[in-house]
Amino acid sequence: MKGKMLLASILSFLLIQGSLGAQNSQEQGPAQERIRENVYTLRLIRMTQALDLTEEQTSRIYPALGRIEKDKANVQKKFASGLRELKDLLGSSRAGDEELVARVRALQALRKDLRNLDDEFERILDENLTTVQKASYVIFSVDFYKGLWENLNKARLIRNKRNP
User: 28: helix, coil or strand?
Assistant: First the structure.
């Protein structure tokens, strides 16, 4: 148990350090990528422990999760870019209805792509987990992202105290 807590603490520290490391806009891309990788690694470790995955389950789930997370990262980058463009368009006087509708539809399509990737991962879990593990995953997922959110908020508070 102490080992799990130590590992979780170390990975949480790395996550927080990565989020504090982005000082200027040029560093933000690589820093965000490091954060994403740290979260991914932490999620894999915690999921393995929480679900008590076998080697066989791990060999089927991890590659799919890696591919899906990479695909989601690409879609999320496109979504962020499209959202910035939409904000810029709305802030300008050149925003026409047709262009706004096209941008909104493109963003909706990207959100649908994200949902489809999440659904694909859920299907993979359904095919490879026992009923108890599926139930445990639901709880794990909520707890993991709640803890992640709390740690990110703490990191923001620390950053804001350093850079008022």
Answer: helix
